Amino acid sequence: MPDPVPDVEHEEILRYEEILRICEAAVRLGIRKFKITGGEPLVRKGCVDFMRCLKETDGVETVTLTTNGMFVKEHIDEFKHMGLDGINISLDTLDRKQFHRLTGTDGVDAVVDAVAACVSAGLKTKINSVLLSETKSQILRLAHLAQEMPVDVRFIEVMPIGFGRFEKGPTEDAVLQILQAEYLDLAYRRDVRGNGPAVYYGSSLLQGYIGFIAANTHRFCDECNRMRLTSTGFLKPCLCYDSGIDLKAVLRGGSGDSLTAALTRAVKSKPQGHCFSHIGEITENKTMNRIGG
């Protein structure tokens, strides 16, 4: 991260064996699709081996990765051989100065190269771009990546969590106006491109698709199928609230619950919807990189 983040003691972080036990219990309850996120997952030693083990676990249907792209190229062959089902690469701008200001690195070329390498390896590739006020000028440049390569470029409305509480980025509708002026036949597609909640638009000029995740202006809470497990073992039914289940306590014998019972309780506690339009009611104060955003 460009700014310091709080340190977490090593013993507070779930071991890979513990994460696998949680995933195995989730599979028994019908949760069969898993996404590895962060922070940046590839900075953790052994992450790729863990992904391979998860991919080989009975009942697991898909394993995908969300990454900043900085360490992707060195693992491309491993991703291909394990049968990774998809990779989402975060890229908010193609402007070098903006990229450095947002990420603290000069790695924009490395990230774009990583996208191209994933495409060449035959990996299903998506680009995730959070819509920020300062990067509005980058919308068309980013969309052009879906013209140059068979990748989906997804624009994500910034959520009012952490830094997002102080940022009012462009909306899906505003971005659509910009894109439809460039791609005159850009239109909504019903194609299934993933596991939700993104919606997609296609054009005859694009090799890939343009997607939107607009949790603020086009809320999709009634269709949300996500649960997030933090590195410290806290299972969150919704990003908006700090409530959830401490699975680490279950795993290490501190709660008396079984994993199956705890997971069931977490699913049943999933709220009907978030309260992003009422910021004062949001109870989650941690930044997105600490909760698997």
UniProtKB/TrEMBL annotation:
InterPro entries to which the protein is assigned, alphabetical: Aldolase_TIM (IPR013785), Elp3/MiaA/NifB-like_rSAM (IPR006638), MoaA_twitch (IPR010505), MoCo_biosynth_MoaA/MoaC (IPR050105), rSAM (IPR007197), rSAM_sf (IPR058240)
Protein name, entry field: Putative molybdenum cofactor biosynthesis protein A
GO MF assignments: 4 iron, 4 sulfur cluster binding; cyclic pyranopterin monophosphate synthase activity; GTP 3',8'-cyclase activity; GTP binding; metal ion binding
Pfam families per the UniProt record, alphabetical: Mob_synth_C, Radical_SAM
Organism: Megasphaera micronuciformis F0359
Keywords: GTP-binding, Iron, Iron-sulfur, Metal-binding, Molybdenum cofactor biosynthesis, Nucleotide-binding, S-adenosyl-L-methionine
Keyword Cell division: no
Stretches assigned to the Radical SAM core domain: 1-193
Superkingdom of the organism of origin: Bacteria
Lipid metabolism is among the record's keywords: no
Transmembrane annotation, as ranges: none
Gene Ontology biological process terms, A to Z: Mo-molybdopterin cofactor biosynthetic process
